[in-house]
Amino acid sequence: MLVESPPEERAGAVPAPPTRRAIRAFGLLLAVSLMVLVALTSIAVGAKELSLGEVWHGLFQESGTYSDVVVGERLSRTLLGLLAGAALGLSGAVLQALTRNPLADPGLLGINAGASAAVVTAITFFGVTGVSGYVWFAFFGAAAVGALVWFLGGSRGATPVRLALAGTAISAALYGYLQALMILDDAALDRMRFWTVGSLSAATDRTITQVLPFLVAGSLLALALARPLNAMAMGDDTAKALGAHLNRTRALSMLAATVLCGAATAACGPIVFVGLMVPHVVRSFTGPDLRWILPYAAVLSPVLLLGADVLGRIVARPAELQVGIVTAILGGPVFIFLVRRRRTAQL
């Protein structure tokens, strides 16, 4: 007599022993605590030195003083860092699972390039200057490129290799277009020089409000795809046998990654490394199960992003170093070190 497999096994992931699940849950709780600590540090520490009393006053007893304004700006900046970091981490984890490439990130499928090209176009041809103005251009560019990559990758017959090749080709073309516009238009180059490296300094309540619905929707969709992506990681034939809908899962994964990365890039600019590094490291201690990788990536990616932002404010006082530069400087050597140590797991 045949015995039906447990739901977890049919979904493509063998359930971990109770002890291991408890360790993972405890680790996730520690990660959340670390994220809260880094967020508080981001509010308290910056290019301008403030006492703890001034920070407390700015948070709970606002009276319009200069220190209150600084704390308010840092609060918006921190909230955007939490949202954007989680979005980049989730999109990177989804794309790594979709392409079965542990080195994949949102840039691989051209999503960053699409958002950047749309913003440059808005600045050059339409005179858009503020974040609230070009956030929609950036999101549209990311969505358009995501759809184009899906079409060129074969649509219903898309494979990880086809998607990666299509994304790489489109990225190269769009970055060439971007550089051409910036060279031909000095004014556009001057306005774009801070946005192109990625920064949280322009965070406002309006910016957060504009991107929040997309980030929430994209995050929920990404988390819902954990089980079917687990099944696809075992190969197409096995995934079909387990009941996974390959084309639907790939399309929804592209949609989730596009929404998340597009909204984050629109608000902060193209911040590199976060979506690549964090899911790659998380996999080394969670294993390949996306039901754990995705929550960990959503929590630890803001830790990296906000930590880099705080460091950038401190090292260049009274000015600051953009977070995109800090993540690139710190991330590259750390990533190479981890790869050489081979402490990360394979998909």
For the structure shown, list the relevant keywords.
mainly alpha; disordered C terminus; disordered N terminus
What do you see in this structure?
By secondary structure, the chain is mainly α. 74% of the residues lie in helices and 0% in strands. It has 15 helices and no strands. It has helices at 7-10, 18-44, 52-60, 66-99, 111-126, 131-152, 160-184, 186-192, 205-224, 226-232, 236-241, 246-268, 274-286, 290-315, 323-341. Helix 2 packs parallel to helix 14 (290-315). It is globular, with a radius of gyration of 21 Å.
Radius of gyration: 21 Å
Mean pLDDT: 82
> What is the element string, with H for helices and E for strands?
HHHHHHHHHHHHHHH
Assign an overall shape.
Answer: globular
Label the structural class.
mainly alpha
Distance between the termini: 34 Å
Percentage of residues in helical conformation? over 70%
Number of strands: 0
The helix count comes to 15
What percent strand?
A: under 5%
Stretches where pLDDT is under 50 for at least 5 consecutive residues are 1-12, 342-347
Biggest sheet details: none
Question: Could you outline the blueprint of secondary structure elements for this entry?
Answer:
Layout: H1 7-10, H2 18-44, H3 52-60, H4 66-99, H5 111-126, H6 131-152, H7 160-184, H8 186-192, H9 205-224, H10 226-232, H11 236-241, H12 246-268, H13 274-286, H14 290-315, H15 323-341
Brief characterization of the structure:
This protein has 347 residues and is an all-alpha fold. Helix content is 74%, strand content 0%. The protein is globular.
